Structure formats: structure tokens, C-alpha cells
Amino acid sequence: MNRALMLLLSLLGLWAVLQLLLGGADGPDFAGLLEAAPKLLHGLGLTLYISFASVLIGSVIALILLVGLMLPWPAFKKGLEVWCILFRGTPMIAQLYLVYYGAGEIHRQLDSIHLWWFFREPLNCVMFTFVLNTSAYQARIIHGAVVNLPRELSDAAAALALPRAVTLFRILLPQALLTALRPLGNEVTKMIKASAVASLVTVLDLLGTARSLFMESFDFDFYILTALIYVLLIGGLRLVLDAAEKHLSRHLARAA
Amino acid sequence: MWDSLASLQFGANGWGDELARGLANTLLLSFCALPLGLIGGLLLAFAAHSRRSWLSEPATSFAGVFRGVPELLTLFIVYFGGQRILNLLSESASSAGTIEFNSFLAGSITLGLVFAAYASEVFLGILRTLDRSYLEAARALAIGRWPTLRYILVPELFRLGLPGLSNLWLSVLKQSALVSAISGGELMHAGYLAASSTGDKIFFYGIVCIVYISVTMASEALITRFHRRLSRGRAHA
User: What is the residue extent of each domain of chain A?
Assistant: First the structure.
């Protein structure tokens, strides 16, 4: 609680300093900020949708990729490595531009295979890119968590003659969830921050809305307010994740 | 596709030299973030680790803010805010025109701040779990506080922090692409200009991605070699 208070106070201090340096003599334009509130809320909703939906769908794809890893296709392992290098070695903005502008370039070919209606919308391009990107990171995280589980779990499942799919989904993954919770939480945080990049392809998420409001009025407070919202959002997420971690590890002995 | 390759040539006819300059700027931008980032990260970590709450709380909050705000937003705040501050200063000082806030400078300051915030986490984790015996041995040999810091603590922090810091370096390389949003003249921006003016978008953005992958892989290889050299003579797990 003390930490949250200090965070809030420091943000207000930052805002006060910036006001002194940059603001006009009349102080912040509260009327303008209130007027912009519905637009900012809409943007916030879009940001949350983009980040959470892409992480969820990405985790499904990551699981599919991991199941493919278990099947006896040797080329799959190499393909997964290439997939990961592709999405972890390039900036999100480069991937997004490639998909968005690239789809625009080949829109005739896409139209002939009836896919243009999807890539036409910037939001769909954003979701496509983000889902594939997060699937690469999550595949690595979940794979790392499952591989580090004690051998006895899979041995016991094999002794009970459980099919491999059941072993994976009913036994290994729930146990791996505790180890993977922290990196997956970091992944959600990363996605919320990465969603700001969507504003560069005309998607009106939180940063996109703030940017358009700033361009109209040149009132710097919009950016400060947006920064405040992002910090509160990620702080709140951190609290939820800590509570989840505590709940999932309640069967473990706690360090004194 | 093959005539697209011709557009990569250096000189007035092709985009090769613009892309190369962009790559040089990307590397330069990332390197320029390091001084602010490493030194800032060290200072923040020591402040956050201290027992004086007037030091530790602001440091933790500062790092928390810059870890929580999207880098693009931080970039906008630094760039537009810095421009404003410079305008105010130049107005009050003289009326000899405005100073322009270079987007490269804004980019490196932003990347440095973000790097410092994440690096402080890395260093703080190491400080908390560091073996006290190092410091006790230094005290027994009557090594003063500053030499202990300089010859024992900081090298140890860098050595143990190398895995975390190398991840941060790779992040900085990728975050430098965001500076294209304020026309920073690095690789992403060069690719954007090339793609929009020739219309060959998939080709140029594909080239940009391939270059980023190569730079990332080269960085990883170099860091692995550096890590091996730093750990020579030590027992390996």
C-alpha cells in the first residue's frame, strides 16, 4: 500500500514539475480533459482487448505448437526454432509494418483467395501480428516450464498408462502453470506496452487516442494522463498476478 | 523480385546506402543508450537497496514508472516535452531563433531511461542475493568504501548481471525501431522511406527484418564469447 502511494505521489510530482516547466499560466485544462474522457476510455478498452485477446489466442497457438513438438516430425523442431528467431529477433513495429503494408501491396492476390476482407482492417493486422509474436514467446516459456518439472510426474502418468495428451493437459500443464506464471505475467505486461505500437497504423487504442487529442490541441497533459493510466493499469495487473501466485503456491511451505 | 534486388544498390540509384546508414544509426542509437542506462541503473539499484526510505522509495517508483509506461509514449513525452522546454529556454534567453530538439537525442535519452529502469531490476536482484563474504573480506583488508565499490562490487555486478543485461541489450536494439515514429533516421525509418517511395513494401520490410535478425544473432554470439571470457578460471555449473 505504501509503495502504491509513493508511486502515485511521484507521478503527481512529475506532473507538477512538467506543469511548471511546460504548462501555461492557467494550469491544466480540466474541461478539455473531462471532455476527452469517453474517447480515452474507449481507447483504453481497445488496448485491453488487443493485449488480453492476443495473449489468450497466442497461448492456444503456443500449446498447438508444443503438441506438434511432441509428435514424431523432426523438421518441426527446426521450424519452431526458426519461428522463434523470426518473432523474437525483430522489433514488433517491423513485423506490424510488414503485415500491414505488405498486405496492402498484395491485396489483389489476397482478394483472389478471399482473405483481403481480413487484412483490410488495421485492427485485424495488429491482432494477427501480435498473436503470432506472443505465440513464439509463450511457446518458449511453457516449454521451459514443462521441461523443468520433476521426472516423476511423467513417469507416474506412464505407469498408469495415461495417453500422452491427457498427461500433458491434465497433469503437466497445471503443475507448470506455477513456474510459468511470472514469465507469462511479464508477457501480458509486455503486450500491454507493445499495444501502443498499434497507434502507428491508425488504430485508436489508448496511445492513438492520446496522440490524436494532442495533435488537435497541443495540450501536453493528454500524454501525462495517458502515462498515468498505463502505470495504474500495469500496477493493478501486477497486484492481480501477485495474488494469483500466492493462491497457486498456497500448498507450498512459505519461506519464513 | 530480381529487379527489386537492384534497388538495393549503393549510390543515387538504390536504397542500399540509406539502409546501411540506417543500420549504423540504429547501432549508434543503441550504444548511446548504454552510458545513461548502465550508470543510471547502477545508481537506481544502489538507491533502491539502501535502508534509507527517502532514497529507496523514489528510486523504486522511478524505475516502476519507466517500466510501466510504453516506450513509444515515453519517447513522445521526452521528444515533445524536450522541444517545449528548449523553446521556453530559448525564448527567455534570446530571440535568436529556436533550438531544435534532435530526434536522435530524444531517442537515446528515452532508450537510456528505459534501460536504466530495467537494469536497476537486474542489479537489485544481484545486490540482494550477493554473498556477504566479499564485503566482509574487503573490510578485513581495510579496503575503503569507494575502492570496494569500484574494484569489487561493480565488477561483480556486471559479471553476474551479464545474462540479464544482454537481454536488455537485445531489447534496446529492437526498441530503437520505435524512434522511426519521430523520424529518427535509423533502420526502420530508412526502410519505411524506401518502402513508401518505391511501393516495394514486402521486399524492403523483409530486408529490414532480416537485418534485425542478423544483428540480434551477431550480438548474441558476441555476448556469449564475452561471457565465456569473463567466467574463465571459475568453476562452471
Answer: 39-243
Closest Cβ–Cβ partner in B65, B73, B176 for A207: B73
pLDDT of res. A6: 66
User: What is the least distance, in Å, from the CA of B174 to any CA of chain A?
Assistant: 5
CB A248 within 8 A of CB A179: no
Helix (H) or strand (E) holding B12: none
Q: Which domains does chain B have, with CATH numbers?
A: 2-230 (1.10.3720.10)
Q: How far is B228 from chain A (nearest CA, A)?
A: 23
Its pTM stands at 0.87
What CA dihedral angle connects B119, A55, A226 and A42, to 10 degrees? 180
The CB density around residue A163, as the number of other CB atoms within 10 Å, is 9
Task: Taking each helix axis as running N to C, give the angle between helix A221-248 and helix A30-70, from 0 to 180 degrees, rounded to the nearest 10.
Answer: 40
Separation between Cα atoms, residue B178 and residue A200, nearest integer Å: 10
Would you call A193 and B71 a contact, using CB atoms and an 8 Å cutoff?
A: yes
Measured between CB atoms, does B221 come within 8 Å of chain A? Answer: no
pLDDT (tens digit per residue) in B191-211: 999 888 887 888 899 999 999
CB B10 within 8 A of CB B17: yes
pLDDT recorded at residue A256: 47
- Topology of the domain comprising A39-243: MetI-like fold (1.10.3720)
CA dist B224 and B233 (Å) reads 16
Measured between CA atoms, how close is B159 to chain A, in angstroms? 23
Q: How far apart are CA B122 and CA B29, in angstroms?
A: 22
Amino acid at A61: I
Q: Answer whether B86 touches A (CB < 8 Å).
A: no
Query: What's the ipTM?
Result: 0.86
> Could you read off the pLDDT of B121-173 as tens digits, one per residue?
899 988 888 888 888 898 899 888 888 888 888 888 888 888 889 989 999 99
Q: Contacts for A141-145 with beta carbons within 8 Å, 24 or more apart? A: A141/A62, A141/A180, A141/A183, A141/A184, A141/A187, A142/A59, A142/A62, A142/A63, A142/A66, A142/A173, A142/A176, A142/A180, A143/A66, A143/A69, A144/A180, A144/A183, A145/A176, A145/A177, A145/A179, A145/A180, A145/A183
